[in-house]
Amino acid sequence: MSTIARSRYSITVRLAHWLTVLAIAAAYLLVELGEDDERGGTPALAMQGHYLAGLAVLALLVVRVVGMARGHRPPIVPAPGRLTVLAAGITHAALYLFLLGEPILGILSVNYAGEAVTLPWSGVALPMLVHADPAAREVVEELHELLGEIFYWVIGLHVAAALWHHVVKRDNTLRRML
């Protein structure tokens, strides 16, 4: 393994990371377009795209977890202190919980509305996880939206930390994912 390869995550992990970034950005953009009836757009089409982006986040999470488990974890050079490692661990755990929880809550919200999530533009329906329940749908939908708002802040923290490592600490944290 070359020095460059040992200093970065595998191509699988890096590609899954950046595709996840794009899928999350698409999910946020499309849900905004889908909720905005006043612009004269097609909310149903935007929401289909939102569902697709959410399903992509979930699929990419599986790829990332498998890739991280099977691949090499390049060290941060110079090594960070214990507090930094702890903060990074907590932030990454939060990110992974959001990457898992948000799509699942989205699927549950659709299912509680009595609808199956279909793979956009294909007509292929995913199995229903729950039966229709309007009261549960309202709770799950509000939780999905609330966690989506909180996720903005966690993502911002993640980006700020990556930039702090790159610009201030001048370590290889960010370069490992590029």
TrEMBL record:
Predominant subcellular localization, coarse grouping: membrane
Compartments where located: Cell membrane
Statement: the UniProt record of this protein carries the keyword Repeat: no
All copies of domain Cytochrome b561 bacterial/Ni-hydrogenase, residue ranges: 8-178
Lineage: superkingdom: Bacteria
Family under the similarity heading: Belongs to the cytochrome b561 family.
Transmembrane segments: 12-31, 51-69, 81-99, 150-168
Species the sequence originates in: Dyella ginsengisoli
InterPro entries listed in its UniProt record: Cyt_b561_bac/Ni-Hgenase, Cytochrome_b561_oxidase, Di-haem_cyt_TM
Protein name as catalogued: Cytochrome b
Keywords: Cell membrane, Electron transport, Heme, Iron, Membrane, Metal-binding, Transmembrane, Transmembrane helix, Transport
Cofactor annotation: heme b
Pfam families per the UniProt record, alphabetical: Ni_hydr_CYTB
Keyword Nucleus: no
Membrane-topology descriptor: Multi-pass membrane protein
